[in-house]
Amino acid sequence: MDQPPSSAGRRSLKRNRKQEFAEEGAVHPTTDCKVLALEPQQSHQDLLSEVVAQVTILNSSLSSSQSDRLTAKRAAHLLSELAENELIVDSIVDCGAVPALLQHLKAPEPGVTKPYEHEVEQGCLLILALLAKKPQHQQLIVDAGALAYLMDLLKRHKTCGNSPALTGLLTSAANAINNLAAGNSSIKTRVGMEGGIPPLVELFEFDDAKPQSAAAGALLSLALKNNENKNQILKLNVLPTLVLMLGSEHATTHCEAVSVISMLASYSPKMTTKVLLAGSLQPVIILLRSCCFKCQKEAARLVGIFARTDSDCKVHIAQRGAIPPLIDMLKSPHAELREMSGFAIATLVEDPHNQVGIAYNGGIEPLLNLLSSKKKTVQHNATFCVYRLAENEDNVVDIIKLGGVQKLLDGDFTAKVLKQLLHLIRFGEKAVQSYVVLALAHLCSSDDQKIIFVDNNGLAFLVDLLTSRNLNKKREASMALYSLAIRSTSISPLDTTPSSMTPQVYLCERYVNNPALSDVTFLVEGKRFYAHRISLLASFDAFRAMLDGVYREKEAKDIPIPNIKWVVFELMMRFIYTGTVDVNLDLAQDLLRAADQYLVDGLKRSCECVIAQDISLGNVSQLYELSDSMNAMSLRRACILFLLEQFEKLSVKPWYNCLLRRVAPDIIEFFRSLLGSGIDKK
Q1: Distances from the Cα of 617 to the Cα of 496, 620, 656, angstroms
Q2: Do residues 258 and 295 touch, judged by C-beta distance below 8 A?
Q3: Through-space distance between the first and last CA atoms of the chain, rounded to whole angstroms
Q4: With contact defined as beta carbons under 8 Å apart, do 667 and 478 qualify?
C-alpha cells in the first residue's frame, strides 16, 4: 500500500508561520520535503494538461467500486507530486482541483465499505495542504467547505478500527488544518468557533506518535496570536498530556510539544505557574540536550520564562542541571540558539548562587565572546550577564583574568542596547540610573558620549552624584567624570592651551623698550617704557582702543599704567613685540592678570598653561578662584580635572564639598563643551 510521506501536508509552515513565531517567540519544527523537479522536456502546457487530466479523473471516479477508488487514489498521488511544484500550484487551483478533492472527503454511507479505505482521502488531504502553502488559496479552500470535512475526518478513529491508513489520514487532516490556519487570523477564529480544537486535542490520546505530533502542530498554529483559541485549548486540560509528550522518543513529537507548552507558558504569569505545576520543568531541562537545535532553542526559552516566576524557581532550575547545557548552547554555531540560551542565563544570573554556578561551569568566557556579537539581543543579554556576574566578588578575578574588562572597553553597543540603556537613564529607578550612567562613562564609545551625557541628561546624574553626601557615590562619580574627560580627547588634560599667538604685525627683539622711532611712552612704576603705535594698533584691541579711540590717552605722549609691576609690563610688551616669552611661574599669575586686562589672549593662554602645571592639593581652590575672576577657561578646566582626578586626597579637606558644589555648574559647562554640545548651561 503506497502512501505519500505524512510530512508533506506540513511543509508550508516554514513560510506562512515565520512572522507569527517571531512575534510570539515560539519555535516550530518543520520537516524538509522534496520538491518535484520539472523535467527539461516538460513544458508548462504539458504539465497543465496533466493537471486537467487528473482533476477530470477525480471528478469522474466518485463511486465506491474498487476500480474507481484505485483510479482516484492514483490520480491523487500524481496530483500531489505536481502540487509540490510551486510554479503550477495556481494552475491546479484554477483547474477546479479544490471542489474535486473535497468530493472524495465525504464520509461513506452507513454500512458501506470502500476499497482503499482512508487512502484516497489521505492523498486528497496532502494536495489541499500543498495548495494552502500560498495564503491566497487558504480562504478559497475554506470557503469551499473544507473545514467541515476535516473535522469529520479527525473523528474517524472513533468509528474505524486502527490501521496504518487511518494513522496517515488523521495525520494528514491535522496537517491540512495546520497549513490552512498558518498566518490567517480569520481561519484560526473560524476553526475555533466551529469546533475544530476538541478533535485535535483528542488525537493526543491516539496510540501513534504521528497524529499526536500533527495535532500539536495544528494547535500551535491555531493558538498563535489568538487568545480565544489559547483559552479553549487550556480548558480542555491538555497540559498533562503535553508534558508526557515531552518525554517521547520521537523527536518530532517532543519538539511539537515543547513548542506548544512554550506558547502557552508565555501567555501569562498565571499560565506559566500552571505549566510548572503540571511537571514540565525537568522534561524541559532534559530537552536542553536534545539533538534537535530547534527543540533546544524552545527549551531554553521555556527555562527563561520559568525562571521569571520567582527566586526559588531560579535556584531549582540550576539545581536540576540546566546551567551546563545552557552554557554549551552559548558556543553553538546557531545564532538563534546562542540568543535564546543567553536569554535563559540572563534570567538565572539574577540569583547570587547561580552567578557563581555560571562562572564555575565556564560561562564567563562564552559570555564575554558574545559581547562583540552583531546580533542586538545577543549582545544585550551577554552584557547584562557579565554585569550581574561582576556583582559577585567570587567572579571578579575570573572576569578580569579572561579579559572581561578589556572586552567591555573595546566593545561598541548596538543601537538596541544603547536605546535600552538610555531608557533606563530616563525612566529607571534612581539606583539603576546611577549604575547605568556610571558604567557608560567608562565604557561607551566617543560617538555615543554626546547622546548619553548631554542629550539624555547623563551628565546631570553624574554631577548630582558628585555633589551628594554619600562618599562612595562621590568617588564613583569623580572617577567616571575623569574617565569620560580623558577618553573624550587625545590631548593631555593639562595641555589644553594652544601655543602663543604670533602678532600680525610685530617688531623684532631690539625694539623692545627702545626709544628709536618710539612714538608713545608708558609710565610704569615711575619708569618710561618706549613703545611703537604700529605694533600695538595692529593686533591688540585694548591698545587700539587706548591709542586710537575715545580715551584721553589718544593724544598723550606719556601714558600712565597703574597697578602693574615693571617686570610684568615688560614681559607683556616683549610678547607683543616678538610673539613669544618665557613665563616664569613666580610671575605667571601677575602676568595673567595683565594679559586679561589688556586682552593679550596668546599670552593669557601661555600663563594659564604654566599655572596649570603647578596645581596642587594646597592651591587648587585658590587657582580655581583665579580662573573664575580672570575668565581663564583653560586654567578652569585644568582645575576641574585635578579636582576629579585627586578625589581620594582632596575628599578629606574640609572645604572640598563646598568647592565641588560651587564648581558643579562649570563642570557641566566644561563637559557640554568637551562633548560638542551647543546647549547653554542651565
Answers
A1: 20, 6, 10
A2: yes
A3: 85
A4: no
Q: Report the pLDDT averaged over residues 22-50.
A: 54
Q: Residue ranges of the domains in the chain?
A: 1-236
- State how far the Cα of 177 lies from the Cα of 377, in Å rounded to an integer: 34
Q: How many residues does the chain have?
A: 682
CATH class of the domain comprising 1-236: mainly alpha
The answer to whether residues 318 and 359 touch, using CB atoms and an 8 Å cutoff, is no
Residues 6+ apart with CB under 8 A from 358: 323, 327, 345, 348, 349, 364, 385, 389
Q: Which helix (H) or strand (E) holds 391?
A: none
Q: In the prediction, which pLDDT does 542 show?
A: 59
Please indicate whether residue 344 or residue 42 has the higher confidence score (pLDDT). 344
Do residues 486 and 638 lie in contact, with contact meaning Cβ atoms separated by under 8 Å?
no
Lowest mean pLDDT among 2-11, 194-203, 613-622: 2-11
Residue with cell 489541499: 128
CA geometry: angle 275, 279, 280, nearest 5 deg: 65
> What does R_g of the chain's alpha carbons equal in angstroms?
41
The letter for the amino acid at 467 is T
Each residue of 87-101: pLDDT tens digit?
A: 889 999 999 999 999
Closest of 5, 30, 31 to residue 18, by C-alpha: 30
Distances (CA, A) of 612 to 412, 490, 609, 624, 627: 34, 18, 5, 10, 10
d(CA 100, CA 167): 23
pLDDT in tens, 225-248: 899 999 999 899 999 999 999 998
C-alpha span between 244 and 278 (Å, rounded): 10
Secondary element (H or E) of residue 558: strand 558-560
Give residues with Cβ within 8 angstroms of 21, minimum separation 6: 27, 28, 224
**Looking at this protein, which amino acid is placed at residue 454?**
V
Average of per-residue pLDDT across 431-446: 79
299, 349, 385, 389 from 346: Cα distances, Å: 15, 5, 5, 10
